[in-house]
Amino acid sequence: MPAPPSVAWLNGRVVPWNEAVLPIEDRAVQFAESLYEVLPVTAGRVRLLDRHVDRMRKAAELLELAPGVPDAADWRELGARLIEEEGLVEGLLYAQLTGGVGPRAFLPEPRPRPNFCAYVRPWRFPRRTEAERGIAAATLPDTRWDSAWLKTTMLLPAVLNKREAARRGADEALLTSPDGMVREGASSNLFLVEAGRILTPPSTAHVLPGITRPLVASLAGQAGREVVEERLARERLYAADEVFITSTSRLVMPLTRIDGDTIGDGRAGPVALDLAARLRRRLDLPD
To answer: Tens digits of per-residue pLDDT, 205-217?
Structure first.
């Protein structure tokens, strides 16, 4: 097991890691009333911060937790402090907003004050060799609730789907709707390349608005390739020229096998590898 961080940010201050605790009656524990963000840290700096803050703030407004979301300046301060304390060059910043502490009731009055905590951990982002190797995926029914666009810590369906995917020898689960349309990965967004076109499932309440997803679409545009949102039947994955996923931790990762079927010629395709290289450069990561 990797060593834990030495410090964390808890409600506006840096505290020793063993003091960064939430009470049993925090609503994150009792009701999964909690949001989170995972931000990339590269070259000693937090990246894409404004986009992550904006996503958490929009979800927090719906959950009536907006007062607990720090403003962008505070996010920058906490990120810099944690990176300095840990001496981090490359890793992930994890931030969580909870419903706060109160009696175990569905609608406590007065409303508890939200809690906000954050910490950083080392993480090595995929380089060219990992992208060229690619990973395998398995398709599974989407058993999440109908507001999957909210990045909450209610991740039990994702845990179960990833566990089943691992049993099938796969590294990611691709979630499908009752009518056989593929939506996204358990912790990633999905793209495929078909006859030179880059396609991705449409943005709906069942698809998390990933931060890496629009960034990759922008990089594709710079390369002269348009990304089109389109409903995608599961069967189209098997016949696609390329399939790849995007996420904060995996960047752009080609899928070389899905449900045991080889995708394309079984190797990472040129479109995905080009986008992966462009994203690494965008984040100041070595090749």
So the answer is: 999 999 999 999 9
Contact indicator for 239, 118 with CB cutoff of 8 Å: no
* Cβ-contact 134, 261 below 8 angstroms: no
Name the active-site residue from 55, 151, 162, 257.
151
pLDDT of residue 2: 82
% of residues, the chain, pLDDT over 70: 100
Phi then psi for residue 236, to 5 deg, are -70, -25
How many angstroms from the chain centroid is the CA of residue 199? 19
Q: What's the rounded Cα separation, in Å, for the pair 160 and 132?
A: 28
Q: Which residue reads 């996503």 in tokens? A: 55
pTM for this prediction: 0.95
Please indicate whether residue 151 is annotated as part of the active site.
Answer: yes
Q: How far are the Cα atoms of 81, 140, 191, 197, 217 from residue 185, in angstroms, in the given order?
A: 33, 10, 10, 20, 17
**Residue type (1 letter), 220:** A
C-alpha–C-alpha distance, residues 12 and 28, integer Å: 19
- Pairing verdict, β 135-141 and 251-258: parallel
